[in-house]
């Protein structure tokens, strides 16, 4: 079955034009097509996964030679291994659930065929991305999912915030992609191939450390853009202007994971250089912390979840950075489950209340029992409370930081986990407890929306136990053949890793056996504080704002550390102010100057040719006329009308003619002919 | 011995007289008579050359025959035309009939 | 009878007469007088033909030219009354003309009677036949055209010379 893996993206890709052109007339305006396509993709993914999981078969096959160059290998094909399987299942399952959910959530919207078409296109592109065995096809899929993200965020294109957000998303990720392309180009130039396994072989055989570091950092910048890490994180919370289903599918469960996937896919390239690893790890860790703080000052339910996504992605990336490859992928899997769950639940709530603002919600536990309990499971999972999946996966990631010896990242992650629990329960309490703060009559969502919620809730619960079914060994299977240099030795000696080094020297060491359970108390503390403030209302949040420090802190968090302002600044002052103005100056003075000069020269030429035409040419023509007339005037006088004159002339003429003919030889000799 | 030269000179003299008369005379009929003189001069030339150089071949005679006939015809037509002219213009003096003359001589015709 | 140099004498006589007549044709004031001397000229030229052995042509010349063309001209001259305002006088030159004619004819007659061979050889007996056959075989088409031409000349001159009744 695994040889047919290439078929997996086909159905969603076909659904794109079918839904686009014929969707209007089909069931639910294209929903049927989307559901059928994603079902096919899911079924095929499951079948392929069985081959990998049960039989341990993998596939690395080239199908097409993109460009045939002498000495270069640029062929595209698919790679199916354990990592692929995880991604395939996640993408196709959540794709199907979102398609089903959209039947009710997007009911009555205009442009639905376009919506389902773009969703299917996205699913197809994402599947291509994860199935690719070479960086070229991966990059193609990468850009395609970026395009779908742009299209879907801006689905309600008539809204100003949606249109700007989609542009921002695309440009920000594109900025990262430019560096990624540079990295790919470097790889191609140096290794003459873009096939992932071949690159890994080359790297393992002969690692050129500086080159690998540079390539790694460049590729990682692409991942930074896609996965919304610092500094390219500004787009993800504005992307919430799109439909909630889009936010769920793309911006929590799948596309944003592409950055993580990229690093995981070519892991030996990153792992070979400790510098790259430290960059990755610290980016992830710090992003996780910062994003979590931003969630404190957010009132939009989707934005809170967006910050949460950024934070959790930070965890995954940090996990990869500290060498916790399997932990990171495990967290990817479980996060997809509960984050999708949280988003769909939020969609259900928004659908009921008609607003995104949690200040307008409250007391929804009674009328929306299924949603409430599903979101509770999601919140518990996200916080990392057992027995839900988040506990197992997040803990493994944090432990990886410990094992790398980087206490800075370790403690940072623990504190972030505490904050995660805090903000997510803030959200839950605001939404479902207390009294309803607006004038709507909420009711539970229809079955098509609640069933996916229940499926995901189930997933969020059981996935955690995969650890005990050998998931971690399963994930690291590929690297049995490819021993990874876990450069922990060099990790702490790098420039950035020195932070962790100092921390490990100054802070007390934690005994090994405490580590797995070290996080849990902090999480519970966070949960407790949240309960106290938002459920029991024993402490009022306004307490903080009474102090100047609190006001300032709130202001910073609310403006998201000025990230948006910074983006605007770069765009307006730097890009526009400097570059655009410089180019404008060139255009105005140089280019227009040349054009004007040419114009003036043409005019000069025209004046000159006019004069020439009038005086010279007309002079000649008129002159010829005048000469002809003058000659004619003279010659005319022969015509006297007197016959005798004519006769005399004729006689004289004949005489002359006879003489000439008669003496022709002598005349010719005289003239020398 | 009369050689050919005498005959040729005779023919030449008659020709000259004829041309002189043609260009000098004012009257139309006199011009016609001068033409007849010229034609006869030519005929003499032809006969002479046939007689002296081509004794057995008589192409010259044939040509002369045609010329006599044509001269007669032309004289008839010419006289008819001059009569008509005389009726129209009231005179047969050809230098007074100059309708084909350029009237305006000198200056550009715009 | 044998007159020595008869041929040369005849020639110079006839030639002189022809030249004289030609000068008189051109010179004389009255057209009638010119026409008369034109007739003399034509006859003398015919005689020259006879001297040169072109018998047929000489006779044709005298018949057609002198007898036809001169007469036509005289008729045309008579039809234009403008030329003679005075009453007709006797032509003073008539006698000279007649004299010249007689002299030339007699020179010719003597030539013929003497039987002297002309300077150019006497034409053969078959001259006329050869000439006629030439005329009617090789030049038959020209003869035909000539006939047509003469017919058209007749018609056109008849048309041209009819009196226009107050048309001009």
Describe the 3D structure.
The complex is a heterotrimer of chains A (673), B (110) and C (168). Chain A is mainly alpha-helical. Among the domains of chain A are: 273-557, no CATH class; 562-636; 639-673. Helices cover 74% and strands 2% of the residues of chain A. Chain A contains 29 helices and two strands. Chain A has a two-stranded antiparallel ribbon with strand order 1-2. In chain A, α3 (82-105) packs antiparallel against α10. The model of chain A has no long low-confidence stretch (mean pLDDT 84). With 110 residues, chain B is mostly helical. Chain B has one domain: Helix Hairpins. Chain B is 71% helix and 0% strand. Chain B contains three helices and no strands. The termini of chain B are far apart. With 168 residues, chain C is an all-alpha fold. Chain C folds into two domains: 6-120, Four Helix Bundle (Hemerythrin (Met), subunit A) (Up-down Bundle), CATH 1.20.120.1200; 124-168. Helix content of chain C is 72%, strand content 0%. Chain C contains six helices and no strands. Chains B and C meet through α1, α2 and α3 of B and α1, α2, α3, α5 and α6 of C.
């Amino acid at each position: 079955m695994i040889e047919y893996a290439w078929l997996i993206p086909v159905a969603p890709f076909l659904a794109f034009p079918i839904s686009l052109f014929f969707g209007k007339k089909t069931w639910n305006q294209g929903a049927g097509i989307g559901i059928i396509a994603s079902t096919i993709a899911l079924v095929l993914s499951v079948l392929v996964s069985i081959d990998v999981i049960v039989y341990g078969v993998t596939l690395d096959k080239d199908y097409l030679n993109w460009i045939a160059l002498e000495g270069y290998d640029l062929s595209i094909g698919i790679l199916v291994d354990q990592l692929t399987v995880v991604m395939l299942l996640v993408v196709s399952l959540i794709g199907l659930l979102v398609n089903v959910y959209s039947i009710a959530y997007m009911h009555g919207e205009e442009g639905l065929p376009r919506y389902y078409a773009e969703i299917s296109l996205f699913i197809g592109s994402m599947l291509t991305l994860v199935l690719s065995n070479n960086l070229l096809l991966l990059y193609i899929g990468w850009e395609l999912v970026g395009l779908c993200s742009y299209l879907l965020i801006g689905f309600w294109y008539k809204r100003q915030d949606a249109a700007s957000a989609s542009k921002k998303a695309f440009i920000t990720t594109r900025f990262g992609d430019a560096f990624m392309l540079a990295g790919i180009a470097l790889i191609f130039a140096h290794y003459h191939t873009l096939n992932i396994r071949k690159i890994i072989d080359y790297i393992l055989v002969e690692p050129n450390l500086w080159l690998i570091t540079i390539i790694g950092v460049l590729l990682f910048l692409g991942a930074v853009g896609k996965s919304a890490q610092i500094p390219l994180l500004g787009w993800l919370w504005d992307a919430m202007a799109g439909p909630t289903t889009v936010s769920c599918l793309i911006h929590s469960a799948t596309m944003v994971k592409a950055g993580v996937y990229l690093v995981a896919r070519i892991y030996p390239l990153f792992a070979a250089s400790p510098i790259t690893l430290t960059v990755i790890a610290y980016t992830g860790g710090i992003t996780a912390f910062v994003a979590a703080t931003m969630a404190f000052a957010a009132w939009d339910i989707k934005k809170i979840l967006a910050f949460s996504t950024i934070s959790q992605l930070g965890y995954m990336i940090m996990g990869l950075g500290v060498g916790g490859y399997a932990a990171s992928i495990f967290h990817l899997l479980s996060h997809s489950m509960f984050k999708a769950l949280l988003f769909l639940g939020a969609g259900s709530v928004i659908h009921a209340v008609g607003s995104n603002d949690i200040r307008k919600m409250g007391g929804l536990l009674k009328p929306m029992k299924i949603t409430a309990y599903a979101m509770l499971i999601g919140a518990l999972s996200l916080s990392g409370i057992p027995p839900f999946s988040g506990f197992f996966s997040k803990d493994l990631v944090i432990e990886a930081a410990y094992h790398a010896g980087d206490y800075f990242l370790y403690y940072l992650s623990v504190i972030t986990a505490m904050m995660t629990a805090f903000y997510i329960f803030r959200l839950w309490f605001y939404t479902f407890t207390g009294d309803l703060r607006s004038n709507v009559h909420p009711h539970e969502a229809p079955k098509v929306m609640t069933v996916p919620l229940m499926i995901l809730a189930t997933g969020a619960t059981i996935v955690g136990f995969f650890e005990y079914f050998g998931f971690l060994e399963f994930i690291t299977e590929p690297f049995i053949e490819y021993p990874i240099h876990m450069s922990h030795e060099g990790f702490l000696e790098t420039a950035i890793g020195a932070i962790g080094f100092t921390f490990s020297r100054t802070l007390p060491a934690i005994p090994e056996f405490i580590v797995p359970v070290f996080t849990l108390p902090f999480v519970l503390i966070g949960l407790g504080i949240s309960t106290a403030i938002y459920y029991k209302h024993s402490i009022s949040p306004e307490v903080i704002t009474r102090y100047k420090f609190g006001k300032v802190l709130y202001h910073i968090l609310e403006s998201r550390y000025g990230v948006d302002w910074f983006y605007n600044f770069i765009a307006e002052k730097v890009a526009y102010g400097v570059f655009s103005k410089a180019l404008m100056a060139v255009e105005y003075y140089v280019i227009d100057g040349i054009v004007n000069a040419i114009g003036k020269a043409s005019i000069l030429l025209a004046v000159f040719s006019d004069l020439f035409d009038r005086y010279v040419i007309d002079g000649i023509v008129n002159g010829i006329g005048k000469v002809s007339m003058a000659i004619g005037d003279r010659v005319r006088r022969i015509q006297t009308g007197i016959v005798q004159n004519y006769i005399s002339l004729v006689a004289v003429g004949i005489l002359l003619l006879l003489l000439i003919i008669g003496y022709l030889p002598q005349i010719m000799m005289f003239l020398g002919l | 011995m009369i050689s050919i030269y005498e005959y040729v000179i005779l023919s030449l003299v008659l020709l000259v007289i004829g041309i002189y008369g043609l260009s000098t005379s004012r009257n139309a009929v006199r011009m016609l008579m001068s033409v007849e003189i010229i034609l006869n001069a030519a005929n003499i030339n032809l006969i002479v050359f046939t007689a002296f150089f081509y004794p057995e071949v008589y192409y010259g005679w044939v040509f002369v025959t045609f010329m006599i006939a044509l001269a007669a015809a032309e004289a008839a037509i010419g006289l008819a035309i001059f009569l008509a002219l005389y009726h129209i213009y009231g005179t047969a003096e050809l230098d007074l009939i100059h309708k084909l003359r350029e009237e305006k001589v000198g200056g550009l015709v715009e | 009878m044998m007159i020595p140099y008869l041929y040369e004498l005849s020639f110079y006589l006839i030639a002189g007469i022809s030249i004289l007549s030609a000068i008189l044709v051109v010179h004389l004031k009255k057209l009638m007088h010119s026409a008369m001397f034109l007739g003399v000229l034509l006859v003398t030229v015919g005689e020259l033909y006879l001297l040169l052995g072109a018998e047929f042509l000489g006779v044709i010349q005298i018949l057609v030219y002198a007898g036809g063309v001169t007469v036509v001209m005289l008729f045309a001259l008579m039809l234009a009354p403008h030329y003679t305002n005075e009453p007709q006088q006797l032509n003073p030159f008539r006698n000279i003309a007649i004299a010249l004619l007689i002299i030339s004819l007699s020179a010719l007659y003597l030539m013929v009677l003497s039987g002297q061979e002309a300077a150019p050889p006497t034409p053969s007996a078959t001259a006329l036949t050869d000439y006629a056959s030439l005329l009617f075989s090789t030049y038959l088409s020209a003869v035909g055209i000539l006939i047509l031409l003469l017919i058209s000349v007749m018609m056109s001159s008849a048309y041209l010379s009819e009196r226009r009744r107050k048309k001009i």
